[in-house]
Amino acid sequence: xxxxxxxxxxxxxxxxxxxxxxxxxxxxxxxxxxxxxxxxxxxxxxxxxxxxxxxxxxxxxxxxxxxxxxxxxxxxxxxxxxxxxxxxxxxxxxxxxxxxxxxxxxxxxxxxxxxxxxxxxxxxx
Length: 125
Hints:
This protein is α+β, with helices and mostly antiparallel strands.
């Protein structure tokens, strides 16, 4: 059972990765990091490059997980996504008519790391 925020975040990312694979997404990279910050998961499905922010919590004491994706956080994610695209232009040329989307996966964990709730918000911002 995760005891700190890093472990809870890692658990959430494992759950989200498994969920999106089962949903037909192809994960391109996890934890893409730049000086600005990190995008949890970058995936591809149906000619769309999807940048996914994963939020995982054990309680709603501070609100639902997705509520922590603030306007400031979305701006940062967009900048990191631009950096990813810029750094990978050559590889992305192989995709015709590629679109981009920003999703949030919100996960509430219960006892023994069982998923109480998983909400996938497509095109969240």
